[in-house]
Amino acid sequence: MSSPLKIYEFYDLSSHNTMGVSAKARFFTEVNTVDAHRKALEFVQENELPVLILGGGSNILFVKDFPGLVIHQNSKGIELVAENDEQVEVTVAAGENWHQLVQFCVNKGWGGIENLSLIPGNVGAAPIQNIGAYGVELESVFSSLEALYIKTGEIRTFSKDECAFGYRDSIFKKELKGEVIIISVNLILQKNQQVQLSYKALSDYLEKNRINNPGIKEVSEAVIAIRQSKLPDPNEIGNTGSFFKNPVIPVSLFDDLKQKYPDIPAYPVSGEQVKVPAGWLIEKAGWKGKREGEVGMHAKQALVLVNYGKATGQDLWEFANKVKRSVHQQFDIDLTPEVNIIS
Ligand code: EPU
Fold first, then answer.
1. Is the CB of residue 52 less than 8 Å from the CB of residue 342?
2. What is the pLDDT of residue 201?
3. Does ligand 1 have an atom closer than 6 angstroms to the CB of 288?
C-alpha cells in the first residue's frame, strides 16, 4: 500500500528558492514516486487549483504567494541502463541534484557534463531550459526523458528532437509549459571524452594555472573554481544565477552599437543575428555592483540579481524591471528573464 499524501497549508517557501524569498504556497507536498504524483494531481483537480512543480528552486522568482499546490519533486536514483566500450547511458530521477550527478559521473570517468559543474538545481529542471555553461549545453548529452501529463496522468517518452531544445529553451517552456512533469532523464556519456575547451574563460584559466592536457576531472575543477570566483553562493546571498538571457539581436543593430561602443562583445548566432552578453549591457548601463536597499546586481557578475537578505519578490522584480528599462533606453535591446517568474 502506498502512503497517503501529506499536504501542508500556507507553507513558507523561503528554504525552497535560492533567491530566499519568503513567499507562501497555499498548499505544498513532497513527492517521490509516479503514484504520489498522480495522487497530488487528483487533489489539484478535485480542488481546481493551479499547480507548480518545484525542484531545487534555483531558477524561480516568487513575486507573489502561490495560490495552488506546489509539488516538490524529490525522487532519487541514478541507474546505469546501457554500456559499451565507448559510452554509458544513465537514467536519472528528476529529484537528483544536478551537481551531485556531475560529480558522480566525473568520478566514474564518464564525460560530457563536466563543463556543467556546480550549476544549481535538480536534474528534472535541466531539460526545461537546456542548461548550459562554458561551451556545453545539456542537449549535447541528452538522449530522452519521461514525463507525466498533468491533465491525464499519462506517461510519455520524449526524444531529443521532440524536446525542441534551443538556447535556454525547450518545448517545456513553450507549447508544454505547465502541462507535464518530468520524471526522469536519460543521458549518454563518453568513456573517452574529448574535453570541450572553446570557452575563453575556461581555456584562460587552464593556461594560467598551467594545466596541460586536462581530462574531465581537471575541467570540472576549473569550472568550479571559475564559478566560485564570480557567482555568489546562494547559501550566503540569495540569487538565481543569470537573471536575464543573453539577448539575440539583429546584426544591423549590433553594427550600430559597435560604432558607439567599440568594445561590445558578441557571439555569432547566424548570418543575421548575434548574441550579446547581458552582463556587459547591464554593466555598461551602470548597474554592476549597484545596490538599492536589500536588492542589487552582483559586483562580480552584473547579470546576477541578488537578495541581500530581506527583499521581497516584489522588490526584486521591480529592481529587475528598472534595470531592464535602463538597458532598453541605452541600447534599444529588450532583456527577457531567464528565470521562471511567478506573478
Ligand atoms: N560581462 C561583462 N560584465 C559582467 C559580466 C559579463 O562585461 O559583469 C561580459 C564579458 O565580456 C564576459 C561576457 O560578458 O566575457 C560573458 O560573461 P560570462 O562568461 O560570465 O557568461 P555570461 O554570458 O554572463 C552565461 C550563462 C551562465 C554561464 C556562463 C558561462 C546565460 C544567461 N548565462 O553567462 O549561466 O554560467 O555563460 O558559460 O546564458 C545561468 O544560466 O544561471 C548561468 C549562470
1. yes
2. 96
3. yes
Question: Percent of the chain having pLDDT more than 90?
Answer: 98
Our answer on whether the CB atom of 301 is closer than 6 Å to any ligand 1 atom is yes
Atom 16 of ligand 1, residue of closest alpha carbon: 277
Q: For residue 49, give the H/E element and its range.
A: none
Is 205's C-beta closer than 6 angstroms to any atom of ligand 1? no
Distance from the CA of 193 to the center of ligand 1, in angstroms?
Answer: 25
The band of 2, judged by pLDDT with boundaries at 50, 70 and 90, is low
On the 0-12 / 13-18 / 19+ scale of CB atoms within 10 A, 151 is exposed
Q: Is the CB of 290 under 6 A from ligand 1?
A: no
Q: pTM of this prediction?
A: 0.96
Residue 206 pLDDT greater than 90, yes or no: yes
Ligand 1 lined by 55 (C-beta under 6 Å): no
228 CA to middle of ligand 1, Å? 13
Domains of the chain and any CATH numbers: 8-73 (3.30.43.10), 78-190 (3.30.465.10), 238-342 (3.90.78.10)
Q: How many whole angstroms separate alpha carbon 66 and alpha carbon 342?
A: 8
pLDDT tens digits along 56-68: 999 999 999 999 9
Long-range contact list for 196-202, CB < 8 A, 24+ apart?
196/115, 196/134, 196/135, 196/136, 197/135, 198/135, 199/115, 199/134, 199/135, 201/134, 201/226, 202/115, 202/134, 202/135, 202/226
Q: Is-contact 310 28, C-beta < 8 A?
A: no
Collapsed DSSP state (helix, strand, coil) of residue 317: helix
* Distance from the alpha carbon of residue 133 to the mean position of ligand 1, in angstroms: 9
Predicted local distance difference test score (pLDDT) of residue 4: 83
Residue numbers annotated as active site: 168, 242, 338
- 249-261: pLDDT as tens digits: 999 999 999 999 9
φ and ψ at residue 101, rounded to 5 degrees: -65, -45
For residue 105, what is its C-alpha cell? 559521473
Tell me the C-alpha distance between 335 and 280, whole Å. Answer: 12
Å from CA of 309 to ligand 1 middle? 24
